[in-house]
Design a protein that fits this description.
200 residues, alpha+beta, Gyrase A, domain 2, RNA Polymerase Alpha Subunit, Chain A, domain 2, four-stranded antiparallel β-sheet
């Protein structure tokens, strides 16, 4: 078995996989897509909202903002541990768009992947204020925790060789997604072998 990076940038990585059976390579692809834990906003307490958007719509938009995740810092963390992000627009006499960059996080490692994602447009005199709570989760629970936008597996012309391409949401470096997925797949296979041996 071998893994070789054939193409890599900040958002996408392609890896050549040799000597791995199709079912295991596909399992790796699926883990890359929705099996690597990342942070995402799970709930929001809206303290003030005079915008045209209902509280539920604001919560939905904020919940889909990708948050940077440091797997090395979160390995010892509990998935139930929550990180609070706050937003207080204040008042203005001008129309303005509130962006993801306006969110303030209590953890400098867990911040939006982009500062330019629109949340809501406020008319003069309107305001919004809320507290959002992010936690670690996996995409198997909800799409907001998907670590990758796409994960594809393509056969090459050579026997038992495939190209795995992963495009990150920005929460993680794409190479880290693959490395974490390999660790998880290896762990799952070890657990499965242990269960089978106990049955025998």
């Amino acid at each position: 078995m071998s893994l070789e990076i054939t193409n890599e940038n900040e958002q996408k990585v392609s890896v050549k996989i040799k000597g791995v059976q199709l079912q295991y390579a596909n399992a790796l692809r699926r883990i890359c897509l929705n099996g690597v834990p990342i942070y995402a906003v799970e709930s929001i307490d809206v303290l003030e909202n005079s915008s045209v958007l209902a509280d539920e719509a604001v919560a939905h938009r904020v919940g889909l903002i990708p948050l940077k995740t440091d797997l090395s810092a979160s390995k010892d963390g509990n998935e139930n541990d929550k990180i609070m992000l706050t937003l207080d627009s204040g008042f203005s006499d001008e129309t303005r768009t509130i962006l993801s960059g306006d969110l303030k996080s209590q953890d400098d490692n867990v911040i939006p992947t982009s500062n330019d994602i629109p949340i809501v447009t406020l008319a003069p005199g309107q305001s919004i204020k809320f507290e959002a709570y992010a936690r670690l989760g996996k995409g198997t629970e909800h799409a907001r925790w998907n670590s990758a936008n796409i994960a594809t597996l393509i056969e090459t012309e050579k026997d038992n060789e495939r190209i795995l391409t992963v495009e990150s949401t920005g929460a993680l470096d794409p190479k880290d997604i693959i490395l974490s997925s390999v660790e998880q797949l290896s762990s799952k296979l070890s657990e499965f072998k242990t269960i089978i041996s106990e049955i025998k």
